[in-house]
User: Fold this.
Amino acid sequence: MKTIRFFSLLLIILMAAKTLPAQRNGTVLESRQMPSKTLTRSVNYSVYLPPGYETDQRRYPVVYLLHGLYGCETDWIQFGEAHQTLNRGIQSGELPEMIVVMPDAGNDWYINNSSGTVRYQEMLIQEFIPYIDINYRTRPQKEMRAVAGLSMGGHGALLLCFHHPELFSACAALSAALISDKDMQEMEDEAYQERFGSLLGSDLRGADRLTEHFHANSPFHLATTLPKEAFNSVRYYLDCGDDDFLAAANCRLHIDWLERAIPHEFRMREGRHSWSYWRDNLPEALHFIGRNFRRN
Assistant:
């Protein structure tokens, strides 16, 4: 009798399981290529397509997720496990379905260089975003486009919104690499040459580095000098670990914006400048962006 009851219970469980909707994951396409006339080369990118993209004809909001210095287009998947965060959030209903695009920027800081020979930001705005809108089922309106990034990518996310607020509705900057005038002047020559020499001008020292081009591409400078009205059409989210070497700069930006009464959200949590921190805090950044897409 016990055996019959056991198999009857097992059959009920199996039949119930068949009636439950199968949980579907999104699709990750790594290291795709877009030919760029602006850069005269191909640009690599990875893309996350939400569950159902392959079978329906819906259009989706899109997030541009930017990597850090010395990174590439696969970092957010390989080290950040962004696809797993998106799968969990979409399946639970905490995140709306969205396309996430991760372009490779090399070490170009998401800007054009001072000589005009490398025009990365021009490529991103004039070629890459239109290319994504044409080749994937995005919702191409400003309200349905956002940008996020870590470190150099946080710098890029802020800068793109400061330069092109007409294109993005939300920005999430994690551990943003914010460089003040003082930081730039006092940077060791070797570090300056490695990180900025090819972008801002070789062999510059001290105050000579504070060029018009540097200030035009410094999120820290623009965030504190642009008129307040310039920030009205984009929602901003800042997040940094309390043991991060960039913590002070991110706190300064937060305080400056508080004093100027510029709306934004700021989070400081326990953590360092590390992938474990960004993995743990990406869900909240995407939730902030998702609320914007849902108009919460």
User: Anything to note?
Assistant: The radius of gyration is 22 Å. The chain has eleven helices and eight strands. The chain has one domain: 24-179+218-294. Residues 275-294 form the longest helix (20 residues).
